[in-house]
Amino acid sequence: MSARPSGTMLPPIEVSPSLSADAILARARVPAPGRQPLIAIGASTGGTEALRVVLSALEAGSPAIVISQHMPEMFTRSFAERLDSLCRIRVKEAEAGEPVQAGVAYVAPGHSHLLLRATPAGGYTVQLDRGSPVNRHRPSVDVMFRSVANVAGRQALGVILTGMGRDGAEGLLEMREAGAYTLAQDEKSCVVFGMPREAILRGAAHEVLPLSEIAPRLTALCRQRIPVRTAP
Fold first, then answer.
1. Active-site residue 22, yes or no?
2. I want to staple 42 with a disulfide (CB 3.0 to 4.6 A). Which of 25, 35, 112, 141 is the partner?
3. CB 161 within 8 A of CB 45
4. H or E segment at 24?
5. Which UniProt keywords apply (predicted)?
6. Is 63 exposed, middle or buried (0-12, 13-18, 19+ CB in 10 A)?
7. How confident is the model over 42-66, as pLDDT tens digits?
8. Looking at 62, 112, 129, 167, which residue is catalytic?
């Protein structure tokens, strides 16, 4: 990945499909401190099952969750609907401009990067970006993690799950540097250890855990670190 862009304030994101990967990553940097609690999860190969394990173990009152799973666009809606039928939280495919609410997990559609925009009230809205792939992926975990680092900062928790390649490793490090607490799935429980391994090598993960321990740890961290707001 190229050098990080500066953290200057940027105008509202209005994306053209011709934007470069560097431009997409730059537009994920929209600093806004004091945001509501948030969990961000990235995954690739093996991630569909890993996400089922994590999300189905979370409580209904969990903070809002944003998810980037490498998956073709024709499958992300049905994937979200299947998870929704198995979980106590609500799971849905993310829609552009919708408000982010506690107790809901938002799955990036397969045609777009998922970013967040801060609202004056301390919340977020979903932004969908059809620009160029980043790390050969759209949605890219790095794009989402960078956006979360900048709009949620220390109010966020980051998780990188099983997957091939390095997408998400740099973004998880940015989340950690912004004050977020970060977790990576361990090698033994991964289908492919590529993405978590790259994050661990960069020092991006505070903890490395088996898949079965990630949801309980998230629940404990939410109780320790951040006041959970319930959806209206």
1. no
2. 141
3. no
4. helix 21-27
5. Chemotaxis, Hydrolase
6. buried
7. 999 999 999 999 999 999 989 999 9
8. 167
Catalytic residue among 44, 112, 132, 189, which? 44
Residue-level length of the chain: 232
Q: Do 147 and 26 touch, CB atoms closer than 8 A?
A: no
pTM: 0.84
111 is catalytic: no
Active site residue 113: no
Q: In the structure, what pLDDT confidence band is assigned to residue 131 with cuts at 50, 70 and 90? A: confident
Cα–Cα dist 188/168, whole Å: 19
Residue-range domain boundaries for the chain: 31-224
Q: What is the pLDDT of residue 28?
A: 55
Task: State the architecture of 31-224 in CATH terms.
Answer: 3-Layer(aba) Sandwich (3.40)
